[in-house]
Amino acid sequence: MPIVNRISDLHAQITEWRRDLHAHPELRYDLPRTAGLVAEKLRAFGCDEVVPGIGRSGVVGVIRGAKGGNGAPGKVIGLRADMDALPIEEANDVPHRSTVPGKMHACGHDGHTAMLLGAARHLAETRNFAGTAVVIFQPAEEGGAGALAMIKDGLFERFGIDEVYGMHNAPGLPVGRFATRTGPIMAAQDLVTIDIEGVGGHAARPHLSIDTVLVGAQIVSALQSVVSRNVDPLKAAVVSICMFQAGNTDNVIPQTARLRGTARSLAPEVRDLLEERIGRIAEATAAAYGAKARLDYRRGYPVLVNHAREAGFAAGVAGEVAGADKVDPNIAPFMGAEDFAYMLEQRPGAFVFVGNGDSAGLHNPAYDFNDEVIPYGTSYWVRLVETALPG
Length: 391
Ligand code: NI
What we know:
Layout: H1 5-23, H2 32-45, E1 49-54, E2 58-64, E3 76-82, H3 109-126, E4 132-138, H4 146-152, H5 155-158, E5 163-170, E6 178-179, E7 183-186, E8 188-197, E9 201-202, H6 212-230, E10 237-246, E11 252-253, E12 256-265, H7 268-288, E13 292-299, E14 304-306, H8 308-322, E15 327-328, H9 340-346, E16 349-355, H10 374-388
Parallel strand pairs: 3-4, 3-5, 5-16, 6-15
Antiparallel strand pairs: 1-2, 2-4, 6-16, 7-14, 8-12, 8-13, 9-11, 10-12
Bound molecules: nickel (II) ion.
């Protein structure tokens, strides 16, 4: 029993929604059109409750199953999609191209939102389960911690959610395939900022200055030893310095410099080690040259850790939809970050990847969500609820 039949019938309509969302991207928490459209559709589908404004612009829909029937809410399963786009100028020349300069759905959240809407429509129509399905549409996945905002707004308590599931499309994974794993599947993402203070001066009299360009370059080099010499070789970590800002002209040694980058890890002890080593190396390297360095280390999204039972369950449901041989239940972790991690700190659940085929990569200006994924992702959501809440 692969794709749910009725979902095949809805494919064209869900594609239309997806392309409409794609043409009208919105950023972070500022999602008046997107969140408004989601709430309007959930009401039209006949959801028992539709609550906008959770975590500023998140939307929640509640659908009660028709099986069981003793009036109790039963077990409550949360399904989560993200709604926000990215500040990227779209390079695609397609009819549903972004109509907003400098903004585009380059991570497929348009597809995630449309697929969960499709599932909500089907679940509200059929109600072939015992218990409650809660569809969660969150803002600000891209760097704004919208999931955390919804949690702080009482998401889990207010709707009595027992388990929560998430899904992201994966370019490079063929359409019709799923992948997941038990344990850490995406990384903790921390922001590194190092401010260096030296002594500015004339470029022709370097002996009277303390050159922050040289000090910054030495710090960037020395930081390469953190992953290669301090982290256990069997554990994963990334330290990337991606910005080096210093100076304004060619004949002045700059007084200050700033380095910025990211530190990624999959385990709490590695995360602590990265923070400690980056700070020590920056300060000590600067001191060796008579300069000062100060580390500002900001912890961002935590490690996304799939719970064992729920990851196994999710892989089983994906196997039912796509065929067991099309599901990788033990994919290697990915060092990107995802704020669904906050939700899995609150409740058991699992995150899965669904193949987007050979599209451009996520966050690339030529990326586009593949509409052929819709029957797989939507059927997965529907079958997840029906299987978890059989009655
Ligand atoms: Ni994304």
